[in-house]
TrEMBL record:
Gene3D superfamilies per UniProt: 3.30.420.40
Subcellular location: Cytoplasm
GO cellular component: cytoplasm
SUPFAM superfamilies, alphabetized: Actin-like ATPase domain
Keywords: ATP-binding, Cytoplasm, Kinase, Nucleotide-binding, Transferase
Pfam families: Acetate_kinase
GO biological process, one term: acetate metabolic process
Upper lineage: Bacteria, Bacillati, Bacillota, Clostridia, Eubacteriales
Protein name (Swiss-Prot/TrEMBL): Probable butyrate kinase
Length: 355
């Protein structure tokens, strides 16, 4: 019997919704929420009923009877650090999503909406590989300053999904491989996947690692301290320089990698330098992850929107080809990744993890 899944992926001003039959997408839509509508609500959690109504109206518009659904899966939010996997939306998980234990973000609504809709229909609800997936080894947590341990916050959903895709396409198990996965979007995360666990990865939330279209990456610490105490900037302004206005935005006033590529090809020397430095830093981070895996790397996977660019593949092949073969899975299919996570549990391939 086929399994029909409703997938809910909330963003700050939109909610992506898809319905799948097994792994086949029946239909999807990005439901846009005007800024003035979102502004009516004091907090992210207050938007729950508004978004739920829009989702149910969308299903009605598509002539999809909610009673035909077998499972509901939502994007995971800023929970406590947890290992990767598919989690049933338990009461404890639901409470932490509502409380925003690591911050309030629209993604917190994914599990909340899944649980509420699922309960009303009498079907299970899950989240899959939220950004707070933490499988770091103990030694990877030490930063050099006890007060500031390293944290794991990254593109866990897509990194895990493409790692599993590569394993499946090559007749292997994700848990039997050593992989370096490089997700390149507004932020860049470079993860070392050791037999199914991401044992080291940069914290993209705080701009750690290589710089990216919107993030500064790791900057000279002493100079950053001086900037913070210079009196020229507020705490919020400094943080915005690190996460939001860093990287491409800081140098070239655009966060669009396609624009930077076009500028570089048209002879803009600064754009070419920034682009070259971008790939250089990614390669350095990937080289570090190769060391984490003791040089035993089965494959390097490039993913995210910037992986669509052929030049990205060419440059990173020159830098990293000596470590392992490279596979490219451009973009990110979060709806399918969420659906697959739920299906692995519903079909008995995996057990749901307890939060």
């Amino acid at each position: 019997m086929s399994i029909k899944t409703l997938v809910i992926n909330p963003g700050s001003t939109s909610t992506k919704v898809g319905v799948f039959e097994d792994e086949t997408l029946l239909f999807e839509e990005t439901l846009r929420h005007p800024t003035e509508e979102i502004a009516k609500y004091a907090s992210v959690i207050d938007q729950k009923d508004f978004r739920k109504e829009i989702i149910l109206d969308f299903l009605k518009e598509k002539n999809c009877d909610p009673k035909s659904l077998n499972v509901i899966v939502g994007r995971g939010g800023l929970l406590k650090p947890i290992p990767g996997g598919t989690y049933a939306v338990s009461d404890a998980l639901l409470a932490d999503l509502k409380a925003g234990v690591q911050g309030q973000h629209a993604s917190n609504l994914g599990g909340i909406l899944a649980r509420e809709i699922g309960d009303a229909l009498g079907v299970p609800s899950y989240i899959v590989d939220p950004v707070v997936v933490d499988e770091l080894t103990d030694k990877a947590r030490l930063s050099g300053m006890p007060e500031l341990p390293r944290r794991s916050i990254f593109h866990a959903l897509n990194q895990k999904a493409v790692a599993r895709r590569f394993a499946k396409e090559n007749g292997k198990r994700y848990e039997d491989l050593n992989l370096i996965v490089i997700h390149m979007g507004g932020g860049v995360s470079v993860g070392a996947h050791n037999h199914g666990k991401v044992v080291d990865v940069n914290n993209i939330l705080d701009g750690e690692g290589c710089f990216s279209p919107e993030r500064s990456g790791t900057v000279p610490v002493g100079d950053l301290v001086k900037m913070c105490f210079s009196g020229k900037y507020t705490q919020q302004e400094v943080y915005k320089k690190i996460c939001g206005n860093g990287g491409f935005n800081a140098y070239l006033h655009t966060n669009d990698a396609r624009t930077v590529d076009k500028m570089a090809k048209e002879g803009n020397a600064e754009a070419k330098l920034v682009q070259d430095a971008f790939y250089y830093q990614i390669a350095k981070d990937a080289g570090a992850m190769a060391a984490v895996l003791c040089g035993q790397v089965d494959q390097i996977i490039l993913t995210g929107g910037i992986a669509y660019n052929d030049y990205t593949r060419e440059v990173l092949q020159k830098y990293l080809g000596f470590i392992a073969p490279i596979t490219v899975y451009p973009g990110e299919d979060e709806l399918l990744a969420l659906c697959q996570g739920a299906l692995r549990v519903v079909t008995g391939e995996e057990e749901a993890k307890e939060y």
